[in-house]
Write a structure and sequence with these properties.
The complex is a heterodimer of chains A (about 425) and B (about 250). With about 425 residues, chain A is mainly alpha-helical. In chain A, about 65% of the residues lie in helices and about 5% in strands. Chain A is elongated, with a radius of gyration of 32 Å. Chain B has about 250 residues and is an alpha/beta fold. The termini of chain B are far apart. The chains are: A mainly alpha (about 425), B alpha/beta (about 250).
């Protein structure tokens, strides 16, 4: 039994190392995938001041609002404020044209007199407040005032959530300016009631501080970032892509007749499969190790933060091995049931992509609609991913990953049983 | 001394799922020890189906097979240890060398160390392939692949050897070497069950033959006796065409 197993392992290993395209799929592609996806998704994890967006800003107001918004945009660090193009001042037409051509994504125009409108509205509001009960003043205030305008131009490719964020930021600026003007006017009006020479100064102040705390193990020092999120996600995805070479291996054996030879030799089908499972399990673990190394060594070379694998190495290894078992089990099941390379490759890849999407690899589960959040629990990729998140982000250990490990190993056993019984009843008793 | 019956096939039938016509229809065969028994017939006659059932690759719809006094359906593991199979396809790994392929097959039959090494060398030498042992199978010619395919089936010195069209599509030289080696094995005590569409080859090679058509045995006996039984025909091919007809057998 051991001799046969060793001979099969040796054979599988030789087949694997001589298949250069297969090696590229198994090792190179996942590395490229994980690097590209992390680099792309890194933007959404970074602070906005690290990815300054160019914004066209045309200040026709040239008064306190225009100046404050300009300074606010510049000072926020979120944006690169562009006020001239080719050394020429911006015009409304130019702003529109540049954005329509996709050269810039956002344009802000503050029309002339905007500050004055705000100022006079604030003044009127203060007067109205101070002349309580005087209906003539109140109705005049409502009738006589235009609202101030700020014109925003957006490239249609901008997502509505991003557009809303820009709008919120501008509303924040203008509210502060409006409040400041209102306070100044209010202070001036009150000062007029005071004895001569006495003045009061009022300033709007932010009285709420926001404190951010990551709800993790108190001893966990891992900082959530794109690498901590993306490396486990795309590692699980890449590990499941083992189904392509594994199903190819099984189908090639059937087509060439070597499967037939294996079947007439002493030993059961499970014995034939066990060598494949062991070899592809090792491949998955090497993939995992390579991706961990890429996260810790390669990523910093591309300006990404280095991966922090945490202190729970045993939990990490057991989780990786369980994910590898689940992936190989899925490959064995598909390879047994599929009848052609095309069938196995297309169904294998599409099903892994679907399971990845359901499992939260592409979009985090908490952002999915309710029904999809419930569905995510059926994906083995989700079990692997949640387990890795427990270790990588929540400081979890063996106890925390055990439920995921059990589910992944259970999935592996179910896949193997399906493969075994399908082979026994459908192939042998044809 | 009476010859010992090694394989008994009783009323063996096989109908594939989704097919109305039986691939085998109640065939009965008795194969003696040290015989070379030929299963001949046109395409779709049931030759490969018979071999696959005898090797345990297919389950019959009905009937009974006994090999070396062991019921096939209950003793598959023991039976597999004494049989060798040379399938019609080149059942080898193309990216492995001949040596690596044979080393794997030998190990699967429990051969190891020096015994395995010597056996591989002996077989490769006998079939004129020793100097190409380190070459990958994909670089071999058709005849060379057939010879390695044969070695993979006989490496463990089986008592019974099933050969499914072992000489199909190869040159005369390779065919001659293969048949000579098989004769030698037979002389050493191996019982051979062999399918072929080459009637002249079967006429010279087999001790007994059965002609199958549409899943039924339509003639059985020693080639010379079969020819003698029909004085109007001078060779096996004429008798074969007389029995099976001249219409094409496309399935």
């Amino acid at each position: 039994m051991i001799l046969r197993l060793l001979a099969s392992i040796r054979k599988e290993f030789l087949l694997l190392v001589r298949d250069r395209a297969g090696l590229a799929i198994m090792f190179l592609m996942p590395m490229v995938l994980i690097l590209v996806m992390t680099l792309i998704q890194d933007v959404s994890f970074r602070k906005l001041d690290e990815t300054r967006l160019s914004i066209l800003f045309m200040d026709e107001d040239m008064d306190c609002l225009g100046v404050a918004v300009g300074e606010g945009l510049e000072g926020s660090g979120f944006f690169q404020v562009v006020t001239t193009i080719d050394r020429s001042a911006l015009t409304t037409e130019k702003v529109f044209q540049e954005i329509a051509q996709g050269k810039y994504q956002i344009g802000i125009v503050i029309p002339k007199g905007t500050s004055e409108i705000i100022r006079s509205r604030a003044r009127e509001s203060v007067r109205r407040a101070l002349s309580e009960g005087d209906s003539a003043v109140r109705s005049a205030t409502h009738k006589g005032q235009d609202r101030a305008r700020i014109i925003l131009y957006f490239d249609p490719v901008i997502k509505s959530s991003f557009r809303q964020s820009i709008r919120n930021a501008l509303e924040n600026f203008t509210s502060r300016i409006e409040a400041k003007i209102a306070f100044q006017v209010f202070a001036g009006e009150i000062s007029s009631f005071l004895p001569e020479g006495r003045q009061i100064f009022l300033e709007p102040r932010n009285s709420v501080n926001f404190e951010e705390i990551y709800a993790t193990d108190q001893y966990n020092e891992i900082v959530p970032n794109s690498v901590q999120h993306n490396v486990p996600a795309w590692t699980v995805f890449a590990m499941f892509f083992i189904v392509i070479p594994l199903t190819g291996n099984l189908i090639k054996e059937r087509e060439s007749g070597t499967a037939l030879r294996l079947q007439v030799m002493p030993g059961s089908y499970i014995h034939v499969l066990s060598s494949k499972i062991l070899v592809y399990l090792v491949v998955c673990l090497i993939q995992f190790l390579l991706m961990m190394l890429a996260g810790t060594i390669l990523f910093p070379l591309f300006g990404l933060p280095a991966l922090d694998p945490g202190h729970q190495k045993l939990a990490l290894f057991i989780l990786a091995a369980s994910t590898a078992f689940a992936a190989t089990g899925y490959g064995v099941m598909l390879g047994t049931i599929a009848t052609t390379h095309e069938q196995a490759a297309s169904f294998g890849s599409v099903s892994v992509v679907i399971l990845a999407a359901i499992g939260g690899i592409w979009v985090p589960v908490f952002m999915m609609p309710n029904i999809m959040q419930k569905l995510s629990g059926i994906s083995p990729l989700n079990w692997g991913l949640e387990g890795f998140y427990d270790v990588f982000l929540r400081g979890g250990g063996m106890v925390e990953v055990l439920p995921y490990v059990s589910r992944l190993l259970g999935f592996f056993i179910v896949m193997l049983l399906i493969a075994f019984y399908y082979h026994k009843f459908k192939v042998v008793s044809d | 001394m009476p010859e010992k019956t090694l394989i008994t096939i009783k009323n063996l039938s096989k109908t594939y799922k989704g097919s109305d016509e039986p691939a085998l229809d109640s065939i009965c065969i008795r194969i003696l020890e040290k015989e070379i028994y030929g299963l001949l017939g046109p395409n779709g006659a049931g030759k490969t189906t018979t071999i696959h059932i005898l090797c345990g690759l297919l389950q019959p719809t009905s009937g009974e097979v006994t090999i070396n006094a062991l019921k096939l359906d209950r003793n598959l593991v023991q039976i597999r240890r004494i049989i060798g199979v040379v399938p019609q396809e080149i059942a080898l790994y193309p990216t492995l060398t001949a040596w690596e392929n044979l080393q794997f097959v030998g190990s699967m039959y429990g051969l190891k160390g020096m015994t395995l090494r010597q056996r591989i060398e002996e077989c490769l030498d006998m079939l004129g392939l020793l100097k190409f042992a380190g070459r990958k199978i994909k670089a071999y010619s058709g005849g060379m692949k057939r010879r390695i395919n044969l070695i993979a089936g006989i490496l463990h010195k089986p008592r019974i050897l099933f050969l499914d069209e072992p000489t199909v599509g190869i040159d005369v030289q390779s065919r001659t070497v293969i048949l000579a080696y098989l004769k030698e094995m037979n002389n050493s005590g191996t019982t051979i069950i062999y399918t072929s569409q080459y009637l002249e080859e079967a006429e010279n090679f087999c001790s007994r033959i059965a002609i199958l058509d549409c899943g039924r045995i339509i003639a059985e006996g020693r080639p010379k006796e079969l020819i003698a039984s029909k004085p109007e025909y001078t060779d096996l091919e004429s008798i074969f065409l007389h029995l099976t007809g001249r219409h094409l057998r496309d399935h």
